[in-house]
């Protein structure tokens, strides 16, 4: 199977808190780009 892994660029990232499970809450602004890697998956 061959799939495309499309690129994205994070323009802004802020940690806004911590969840009860220990993971961080974030506020992020991202844009997609006209770039992609090709990923080949085989058994």
Approximately what portion of the residues adopt beta-strand conformation?
Answer: over 45%
Principal-axis shape:
flat
The figure for the number of domains is: 1
Unreliable stretches (pLDDT < 50, length at least 5) are: none
If helices are DSSP runs of H or I spanning 4 or more residues, what is the number of helices? 0
Q: How can the largest sheet be summarized?
A: 2 strands, antiparallel
Order of helices and strands: EE
Summing up helix and strand content along with how strands pair, one would put the structural category as mainly beta
Mean pLDDT: 96
Give the tally of β-strands: 2
The end-to-end span amounts to: 9 Å
Q: How much is the radius of gyration in Å?
A: 15 Å
Helix content range of the residues, please?
Answer: under 10%
For the largest sheet, list the strands in their spatial order: 1-2
